[in-house]
Amino acid sequence: MRALSTFKQNQLTVKIYAGLLAMLFGVEAAAQDESSANEVAALEEVIVTANRREQSLQSVALAVSAFSGEELEAQGIVDIKGLTERTPGFSMGTFNPGQPQLYIRGIGSNEDGAGGDQSVIVFIDEVYIGRAAGMDTDLFDLERVEVLRGPQGTLFGKNVVGGAVSMITKKPGEETEVVGEVTAGNFNALNVRGLASGEVADNVYGKVSFSSRRRDGYFTSDLKNYQDFFPGGISAKDSLEVNSDTFRAGLRFLPSDDLEVNMSASYSKIDKYGAPNHILRSATGTPSVGYRAESALIDNYDSKIHTGLYDDPGFFKSDSSSLTFRVDYDLSEDLMFTSLSAFRSVDAENSDIIGTRESSAGLSTGINALYASVLPIYTYLVYGSNDYTDDSDTFTQEFRFTSTDDGPMQWVAGAYFMSEKTDREEFFSLGLDMEVAPGYIIGAVPLGTGSDDQSNETKSYAGFGQATYSLNDQLSLTLGTRYTYEEKRNSRVGVADPFAVVGTFEVDTTESWNNLSSKLSLQYQANDDMFLYASYSEGFKSGGFQGTAASGLAASTPFDPETASLFEFGAKTEWMDNRLRLNAAVFTTDYKDLQILQLLIPIGAPEGLSGVLVTQNASDAKIDGLELEFTALITDAFTISGSYTYLDTAYKNFGIPAGYLAPGDGAAPNRDGNELRNAPDTSWNILARYDFSLASGAELAAQIDFRHKDLVWQDPDNFVQAAVPEYDVGDFRLIYTPANGGITVTGWVKNFTDEEYYLHNYPSSNSGNATPAAPRTYGVTVGWSL
After folding, report:
1. Do residues 241 and 270 lie in contact, with contact meaning Cβ atoms separated by under 8 Å?
2. Which of 245, 273, 712, 729 is the most exposed place for a label (fewest CB within 10 A)?
């Protein structure tokens, strides 16, 4: 019934899209009369490698969105957040700055422990990026980006149960290329990027590129006297500040017509300050859970989303580096061998400042009992801090054979190995507010501390194959399978905290899992302009260990793998002499043993504990949906593109693990039928661009886009105070290119209506801790090429 109700509520959106398409076809009829005088060009073919071989986007039997490097620049997409705004079914949360939580079609992960994995994986030049701290990368120096939606277990492997983001960097070529770009904007934004590429010796080509981004924070604090107490401390303006630098270098060798060798290296440094708890509450003018009691005296915080009460915003820092070595060798006219070796290192450090419980009668009895001798009761907030370092080293090796002939069967087969070691030291502390006693963190000697130090080693082995056989000129069949064996060893030491966030233990546990994932697809090329497919595919997410363990038993007990089964029906079509591209996918996905991170109370914990985060195989889930994407070249000068997504998601058979209670009265809530995290019922975006030719020979382009996202839940209980409300946001760009070319000047405004909305919300007791999105930002970008 919810699906039907939601569909009716969104009929207006569907009608708008239907009306737009009708308008386009109307334009087609009108344009026929003048086609001989002013012929309209066709849309360019888009090439992707989603099946590990080059294919037209319109002939790939899966839901994939592709962005060329030129499109990324034209649309001002500089990071993964920008991709989520233009890709159907793609969402991102940002609880910790620098650690994006990626969700596709409602499936993702917010588990960041050493023994856990992500559900949406980033690949850079086909190299697996598994740690969340390594996914926050600038989008530059790219040939294209492909976003694959749904489980991709056969060719992309483990943990790709939600989808994959595949980034393909530019290869150095024969032609010399030197390009640069400088952006300046409000909040003291300054971004610089550049690339130089060309021939360095006979049959040897090289490339160097870099990207540097700076921006002051846009989240401020009402604690005006913080700098007076600590003159050397971090000022409030630094909250949500961005500092990142990325460098890449590559060499390409072509010693013969049959052999190509590519080597690349990269280094990235990120330094961000995050938003502390901007806590949402149901009533204004009263103290809120997690706020100081004085919050009642300050203006309505529900309407001041870029202002909060904090002394220290917390931070995220990371250093990452990678080396990649790839060999492509044509063994014959019909067979190519590929070897892909990669090493990646990510060292991350994070500090979260978290407010704890405060009831209307003051702090809880449990906290008072521990701190009665030092804490002025009923007055100040007790702050918590969650700090960690997370250092990982990953080596991957893939050997692959790919058919290259024009026969009826096209196939790929190979073997894969991954070795990863992650050391994570996590520290928890509880202290008093700055105005109680100057000292630790934001003002006090820590009154409660605990730690959980982990070392996790993963070995993963896989063999895979996929083949497509042409039954006739129009009909083809694809079969694929992948077998994965994985072993994890998790060693950890826990030191107890007075509030039982962690227990005291020392464990060393080894567990292994295996999985066979398959794919079956039937493709039908109805004519040159219409491609239809029906597919079934499976995905596998590895089991793991708790990110934070409340006891030795919890630390040594693994959670099981998660599996996905997808049925998808799609149509990829072109109309109006290839001037309208319209693609659609209808799908249903069943997930088993869904790994869910939720807030629970360990049995026997002291009164006053708001809960600990526990990952468990809590539920099955079902996701049904519809996705539409279109691009319309109405005239040579006028282009419209957009997408629409409808999702109907529900948990099934949801329970609470042994040894824990639900927050509140401890009773297990009935979550069956609740919607999944980060799965808006509807979301859409639309972009329009018009290119003008000026009398001087210069060119001017105006581009505007709008996007909408329905309310999204952030916890399994669908707790409204921890939800992210729906929002509508628009951007505008004006691009000028002089007659002699060589440079472009772009004026841009993001969020031009200054919409106040949130990127993420974290449930805590009876409140939500929200991360606000940026207000209106604007600036000028100057790019040039030599």
Report:
1. no
2. 245
